From TrEMBL:
InterPro entries in the cross-refs: Gp88
Organism of derivation: Pseudahrensia aquimaris
Protein name: Gene product 88 domain-containing protein
Residues in Gene product domain copies: 64-173
Database matches in Pfam families: GP88 (PF17338)
């Protein structure tokens, strides 16, 4: 089968608003995998899965204000589509389609990944620099892939009081994985700040629009990073500090 066929692109006036949109018969869609399979690797003991936010233009390295102030930021990435619900509104236009650069590694999900993360959480909880608190942006790409994986997060949060998690999920609150996520949100309301995706207008959720003219006038907040009002998430913090609906611009 032909792999990595050049995807069809939408054409809009700004690069920011031109996602790479895969056709329904693209192998990456049919096989539920990354468009860049050579960027998917197994976790291994020679490198950290968690990457400092200082290497991310979007996240930033240390929270600048709010209840998580001064906590260093880390992130990690799963494989897009392989771990995501197929109903995700971004399934074909996932911004992972654009992430082909050499260092854009996705880590294969499973026991080896959670084992490695446990080791890293343990180290972070003991190091003087990170013991007071750390922020983990869960899944730059990808999603909570099973109920047991969600339960694993609950165990980590119970084990490490310094661990603070922020992210998004395309699972709905009433599906089996969504119900498990909602329970962790209730159990750790200030440390497990995972928002629901694709739920326009709803509190504690996010949605994506194709342009500023599509932002609803209902009190939703446009992500300040997307409109160049902040340098990075560490400087903003809306996603974990606020419950208001956040709107992202398609990219
Ligand atoms: S609203 Fe703020 S914290 Fe959320 S993604 Fe945008 S910049 Fe980051």
């Amino acid at each position: 089968m032909k792999q990595n066929r050049k995807p069809k692109q939408r054409h809009t006036s700004k690069k920011r608003l031109s996602p790479i949109c895969l056709a329904a018969d693209d192998p990456a869609i049919i096989e539920k995998r990354s468009l860049h399979p050579n960027r998917v690797r197994d976790p291994n003991e020679t490198e950290w899965v968690l990457k400092s936010g200082m290497h991310s233009r979007k996240y930033g390295d240390r929270v600048a204000k709010g209840t998580w102030v001064n906590f260093p930021v880390f992130s990690f990435t799963l494989e897009e589509r392989a771990t995501c619900p197929a109903h995700c509104s971004q399934f074909a236009i996932c911004f992972g389609n654009r992430m082909s650069q050499p260092r854009a590694y996705r880590y294969r999900h499973g026991q080896a990944l959670t084992d490695q993360l446990e080791t890293e959480f343990q180290i972070l909880s003991l190091e003087p620099e990170t013991a007071p608190g750390t922020v983990v942006r869960a899944h730059t790409l990808g999603d909570f892939y099973s109920i047991s994986y969600v339960s694993w997060w609950a165990e980590q949060l119970a084990r490490h009081s310094s661990l603070h998690v922020w992210g998004y999920t395309a699972w709905t609150p009433d599906c089996h994985i969504g119900i498990a996520i909602a329970q962790v949100k209730r159990d750790f309301p200030n440390r497990f700040r995972v928002r629901w995706s694709n739920r326009p207008g709803e509190e504690d959720s996010v949605s994506v629009v194709s342009g500023l003219d599509k932002v609803p006038n209902d009190g939703s907040i446009v992500c300040p990073y997307d409109i160049q009002r902040v340098k990075n998430c560490a400087e903003c913090g809306i996603c974990w500090e606020s419950r208001k609906h956040v709107v992202f611009l398609e990219h």
